[in-house]
Amino acid sequence: MAAAHYFGIKLPLLFVYYDTPFYAYQDKIISFAVVSYIAMFYSAAQHRAVVPAALLVLGVTVLGLASVNESDALASVLEEGQSTFPYWAQTGLIAAYFVVLLVLYLRDKKESKGDMVSSDSIT
To answer: Is 15 helix (H, G, I), strand (E, B) or coil?
Structure first.
């Protein structure tokens, strides 16, 4: 995704708003911001304590995309009658990814808590 934004490869899933007008400098800025996501999720994979922050960032991203999808600013750059469905579909995929990660995190947290109780009972 970072490379796609940097080089302007406008394809769905690599770009949420792949068919809207853009400025190349904006996409380069987004490419650098995507690197922070890479670092955040890599850190979360290595250190469980970072997972809540990564989930928060992803959740805020979903809310932000939903806000853009509903905005007058987006509507003003779309062709007459152009559907926002492709943007909502991609936002939905990111939201589903968020939900899956959240469920897995909560399940693991619950199991880890159960393991601590079990090991505390043994000693």
So the answer is: strand
- Across 34-57, average pLDDT: 96
Number of domains comprising the chain: 1
User: Distance between alpha carbon 31 and the CA centroid of its chain, in Å?
Assistant: 14
Q: What angle do CA 87, 96, 98 make, to 5 degrees?
A: 105
Q: Which domain does 9 fall in, by range?
A: 2-122
CA 25/CA 109 separation, integer angstroms = 41
Please tell me the pTM assigned to this model.
0.84
Give the dihedral sign, CA 64/11/37/92.
Answer: positive
For 81-104, what is the mean pLDDT? 97
Classify burial at 111, counting beta carbons within 10 Å of its beta carbon; exposed 0-12, middle 13-18, buried 19 or more. Answer: exposed
> The tokens 């000693």 sit on which residue?
123
Helix axes 85-122, 51-69, angle to 10 degrees: 160
Cβ atoms within 10 Å of 54's Cβ, excluding its own: 19
CA distance 34 to 93: 17
